[in-house]
Amino acid sequence: MALTRHHPWRTMPAAPTAVPPRRRRVNLPLLIGGGLVCLVALLAILAPVLSPYDPAAIDPAGRLAHPGPAHPLGTDRLGRDVLSRILYGGRVAIVVGMVAVIIGAGGGVTLGLLSGFRAGRLDEILMRAVDGLMAFPALLLAIMVVAALGPGHIQTMTAIGVVLIPVFARLARAQTLAVRGQEFVLAARAMGAKDLSIVLSHILPNIAGPLLIQTTVAFSGAVLAEASLSYLGLGTQPPTPSWGGMLQEARDVLFVGPWMAIWPGVAIAAAVLGWNLLGDGLRDLLDPRLQRGTR
Amino acid sequence: MKGGTPRALIAHWRWRHLLLFLVAAALIAGLPGRPAGAQSARDRFVFALSGGPDTLDPQATAATLAFQVNKSLYDTLVEVDDDGKLMPALAESWTVSPDGLTWTFKLRSGVKFHHGKTLDAGDVKASLDRILDPATRSPRRNQFGPIRAVEVVDPLTVRIVLAERFAPLLANLAQGWGAILPADLIARRQDFGTRPVGTGPFTVAEWQRDSFIRLQRFDGYWVKGQPRLREVLIRFVPESAVRTAGLLSGEFDAVESILPLDLPRVRANPNVKIITQVTSLINVLAINNSRPALRDVRVRRALWYAIDRKQVLKTAYGDESIVANEFMDITSPYYAEMPDPYPYNPDQARKLLAEAGYGSGLTLDLALPQPYSEHIEAGQLVQAMLAKVGVTARPRVVEWGFWLSRVFGGGEYDLTIIGHTGKLDPDGRLTGFGDPATNYVRYQNQKVEDLILAGRITTNPEHRKRIYATALKTMTEEAMMVFLGTPVRYVGTQRTVKDFRQLYAIDTYDFRKTTK
Amino acid sequence: MPLVVRRLLAVAPTVLVVATVTFIALQIIPGDIAQIMLGTDARPEDVARLRQELGLDRPLPVRYVEWLGNLLRGDLGTSIAYREPVRRLIAQRLPVTISVAFSAMFIAVLIALPLGVIAARRAWSPVDLTVLAGSQLGLAVPTFWMGILLLLGFAAALPIFPLQGYVALARDPLQWGRHLVLPALALGAERAAALVRLVRASVLDELNRDYVRTARSKGLAGAFVLRRHVLRNALIPILTVASLQLGYLLGGAIVIEQVFGLPGLGRLLLQGIYARDLVVVQGAVMTIAVTFALLNLAVDLLYARVDPRITYD
Question: What predicted TM-score, i.e. pTM, was given to this entire model?
Fold first, then answer.
């Protein structure tokens, strides 16, 4: 679950990388990633239109039907159409991902900006708190929050959001620290500009790039986390369709209805892959700008 | 680049990692366990159960899974035979005084506990005193409530004096919580939960929670020639698909609870056989009778009419499940044959709802317990059926702790689906109903409450049957709950397994006669 | 070694924060532990009495201080559901989780190291691109899905590995290994996907350094250069990020234990949550978090040993 880290490349100690330039004219990851993400989003938004059946429509007679003309991906234990449930499951994945990332990025970036800009005692205290949260493996922290709040998709969003906060906080802080010593910031300060306006109009735009990339990674991590939590029974609760929950339901019927165990996983992988590739592509895109003034 | 694949250095690094890993793993992962002795496969039995016991102290738990293991470690004064009738076990015989208040038990002689002590009346007294002691916190204490005193008459005779007549006494003594523990260890405050000592056919050789429990034959068991097996290894496997796969691959000698949808696969395999057993479970759609809309009997009856109970039963609990029209399992001698008072009829349901003033619709909360996927399935079927008559049921899956304390305990629900396990004595199932303070569906009916109390103190079985029949009929007519039915349980064993004994009446397993 | 002591002391405040966060987070749980313990037929008076006896009615600060004090003594409390000391429950399960984590890491390294090296040496070739693509796929595949697919494949096609359960190493090494193959594969493959990119980047970085070019220009054979210098230097950043991987490893182990029915800390944690057994949940969370911290520490120390240029303040 690539929930809390930058892409491995990013965390390497600084070294002038004299890697041979890519002989590509086209930014492949951006294209493929962007395409996948758009596809997933589109399918989720159009779910009501595209679903051949109501995802909650129970059909006891047609239980565990093999994939065929009537049900392209088969049916589950209650006779519900798997394809429809996967389409609607996409909605859950996207909503949970979005809200979680908003909470994580919103909270984390605010904290990081504050911490990096003000520095001093505030910075120390905030970073201790962030360190405290980071002392937990990410999934463990999410499980703990869900354990405290109870299962359900709203609680899941909160839990994943909480887990994302430290990452964004650290990133925003590091970027802020790097930028605030720059000339244009010092100049603005000298001219007497208020802190808030400096942060908003000068610092934020300059750190937006890495933050955006982190957002894509966070999104893919959130989708994976929601799926894991639902699989464990701690996330989205039945009968709301969710990809992880469908894999949990598939356990009992694993050998009788293997299609139930395959397609939800494919959906999860596609969504996660899309966001990961998008992040890669964005990084390549923004790379030349990023080389300056970081670390 | 020339030079070829750097095999040597890869091997070099791999070797380093391997060494590091092996050393670390050996240091950390080594467990003090008994070396696996050479055992012939024929007298070692592997049984896959859906979960493990929480404790091995029979007086400290109410969990079915605990008693499924404890049956092999302890014995009770009386036992249940395959038809649910009570027969002598540790007690050879018993008599009851004419006023029904004094029960005298004659104990079997020469019965030994696992630690060598011989069973005597003092052990029975100590065990019963222990379960009655509030400090033990036994969840089954109230099943022995009316006991006023336990007296030792002589080493093999013990007398139980009741404060009032109590028909279920014998049945309760046959249950797992009636196990007899040794008085000397009770006095020494032995932790039976992890160090069980009883008179049962097996002792515990090794127990790893969430993994397995290994039972070893007790050679001094009071039934000569039993148990026939030398070792029973009970593995805890929560997933039925994995249990079934293990049965088919030969990893398990027997598995419990095969899902109906796995049956075709299992039946197709010539090496395994299926034992079909009607359970004493009753699955119900419980209705919170105290809620405003549900206080009206017309609404409750409408719910009954609206649900195709046979369909729900067969889909969620298996094709061979038996519909129940009353709150008593079909395997009980107190079962009263009763027709379906409200056969499936959505139109009638709508009519009744309109009469009661809910013609424009009614919204109800449906709480479903998370660990039971079959109840969750049933819930979704029920939701669909209720929707057709204008009742919007909102299902919410709640995890077990929440269900127990807030739904079952706190009454925070409109509808819920759960199964009620059978009890040997009908009072076990019915006690508390009629008085809204003591039953979780808040069903109130003074007459029913009186009948149930009367049933408890009547010892004549025929009288009891009539009393309970009236109570059951009333409960059904007033649609206290919507009874779904009794599921059938499927146990799978290897073809060579003989005498695998499942006691449905108390939902446990008896391995004394089993062989492979 | 003073460094070890210093680093251990540095872990202490982290542990304190972990303990506090754990304690706070789990006090908000709805659901009544006492009711669950006694079962559905218990009388309300008994439940109330149990709550009192277990001290669930005392004020929060009192319980917090008690919790910390007990932790210092290594007392993790007594499980409410199991009525056994939590320490004993954890001691039984820690080896399982460690076995899973280590074997998964072993497989991850086994896969990632050679693949990463090959990919780096043939940078931008079809082989390399395949490795990169495979890594992307591996990262996208959820661990538990991989586990389920392995179950499906192995049970249906090749029933040579058991589908669940665990045997202790000391009892039967062969069975121990057999029971761990599928879980380690499921968890390790995903970790390998993450690791291989790192190995590749790290090796690639080193390969392009001046000293490598110098060595090559002097005519030293490629393999020799690789072994002597490159890998050794590449190890440093690998170790850095390996410690970041530990978090995912432990998190993934929790889920994998559920998939394969392994009686480890993750299972214990989840069962504690389902049963609302506060004590067990706290104990399990603490143990996993502290293990995480200690493993990080171990990597840090290894890092310091491997790279003599690194000094800690």
Answer: 0.80
